[in-house]
Amino acid sequence: MKIRLICCLLLSMLISSPLLAIPDIPKLNNDELDMIFFNVPHGEASLLTNQQGQHILVNTASKRSQKTLYQQLSKLQVDKIETIVITNQSEEYTGNLLYFLEHYQVEKLIIPSNMNVEFLEDVDVETWKLNEDFVLWEDVNIRTLDETKDGDISFLMQYGKESILFLNDKETAIEEKLIQQTGDVDILKVAAFGSGHSPSQSFLEHIDPYMSIIFPSQTHKINESLIERLNATWIDVYFLKQSGTVFVRLNKDDYEILTENSSISLLYS
């Protein structure tokens, strides 16, 4: 069984400022990546970073989270984002897209097939295609697993033996299809801010993740039975509103979790 290394980096001050949501973290070594799940006031945004200082942003969160995202990215010294990946067209996922395109020298955009981006210039635009791999960097691939009629994309990110499932359909009907395409995953990003019915018990047993991530939302109510199911299956649940921004350091064989809040447990309010 894989050993999970949990390193809790405690801050000396209370987390009262968004800027404090980013702890000091060790530099990346060869063959290491950081997957950063941002704690923002509202919406979803994640950043993938490699040792060469390249960055891929998965969703841009709500516009009301722009200041917090800017502060956290500044603390990380991120001033360029090579690629932006969009998995949902709603404001909670795309609210800062124009802001990032204007200020972060974005070169490439991956979007749902029915998303309108005719206003873009000087950006390479690709659309998700089912069961097709996007090679982001060497040994880093993402595969489209499902796209709903509204353009919500579920995909699997793979780096060596490590995998992250970005689930973006909150209904269990998707699971039969995903079971045919996935095996064990290490990390599950839960759909719709934990407000839906997926993942079901049977799906959790199939993918068998070690940890799950739930982004903050000011408009979605968490499904208590879903959380009970995750906890009963011994899956660590990271509510970013409580844990703060979570760093997952990946190599090709393992990962460790870096977070500034010692109470990363599985409670929510």
From TrEMBL:
InterPro entries reported in the protein's UniProt record: Competence_DNA_uptake (IPR052159), RibonucZ/Hydroxyglut_hydro (IPR036866)
UniProt keyword Hydrolase present: yes
Listed GO MF terms: hydrolase activity
Keyword Signal attributed: yes
UniProt KW keywords: Hydrolase, Signal
Protein name: Metal-dependent hydrolase, beta-lactamase superfamily II
Residue ranges of the TM segments: none
Cleaved signal peptide residues: 1-21
